Amino acid sequence: MQTAYYNRLTLTGNRAIEILNSEINYRFIDDHEQHGHSNPLAVYRIFYGLSTQEAKELRKRDPIGDVRYSNDTQYMPTSTGFTLVSEPKPLFDLQNHILTFAGALDPHLIVCNSTHTIPIDACSTRYVVIDNGKIREFIATSKINPPKKHTLETDKEIDAIRAQVKKDAFSKLKNAIDWVTYDMFRF
Fold first, then answer.
1. Residue 78 · residue 22 · CB < 8 Å
2. How far is 132 from 14, CA to CA, in rounded Å?
3. What pLDDT digit, counting tens, does each position of 58-98 carry?
4. What's the rounded Cα separation, in Å, for the pair 175 and 114?
5. Read out DSSP for 70-104?
6. Domain ranges in the chain?
7. Which residues, in sequence order, are bridge partners of residue 113?
8. CB 70 within 8 A of CB 85
9. N or C: which end of the chain has fewer CB within 10 A?
10. CA 169, CA 111: separation in Å to the nearest integer?
11. CB of 136 closer than 8 Å to CB of 177
12. Is the pTM here over 0.90, yes or no?
């Protein structure tokens, strides 16, 4: 069985970027209404502008075996980001793609991908920005040893580890890039 990854992608920037976060969610929701829930071709249609047939062809060659939208808009505002589940690895290439193209809307765009394995035994956060024309990445990771029996308390402990990893990665970003400020941090 391949490892699956939960990818929470957050785009931080100006008002146009907030609107883009919402638009991405709405396009996935619309795509699901047209093509069915958790359609694995949705990512190719939405981010690459491909037809369904072109998406099928690209998917055959893609090292990401599976990627599906997870609608968490009932828990999270659409303007804060979106969630994709992928196999067999996190969506770092897609994160770079989004940075490259959405960066036209805001030269100070920050794209964050907070990931964890499913079932959870590790988590990481990867921030990317464009600095002097090049993509720079800032990563923090942690192993997680979940107990055999999950409780609300153990879930809180896991959430605290994930939050700390995200803070650690952001601190690396903040310390390396002059225009990044603490108010750009998003949970």
1. yes
2. 19
3. 999 988 889 999 988 888 888 889 999 999 999 999 999 99
4. 19
5. E--TTTS-GGG-EEEEEESS--HHHHHHHHHHHTT
6. 4-184
7. 9, 126
8. yes
9. N
10. 12
11. yes
12. yes
pLDDT tier at 1, thresholds 50, 70, 90: low
**DSSP annotation of 40:** T
Is the pLDDT reported for residue 175 higher than 70? yes
Cβ contacts of 180 within 8 Å, gap of 6 or more: 108, 110, 129, 173, 174
Side chain identity, residue 132 = N
Q: CB-based contacts of 93: which residues, under 8 Å, 6+ apart?
A: 64
pLDDT in tens, 5-45: 999 999 999 999 999 999 999 999 999 999 988 888 999 99
**What is the model's pLDDT at position 80?**
87
**Across the chain, which distance is largest between two alpha carbons, in Å?**
48
124 HSE (CA, 13 A, CB side): 13
Q: What is the DSSP letter of 13?
A: S
Place of tokens 């067999």: 88
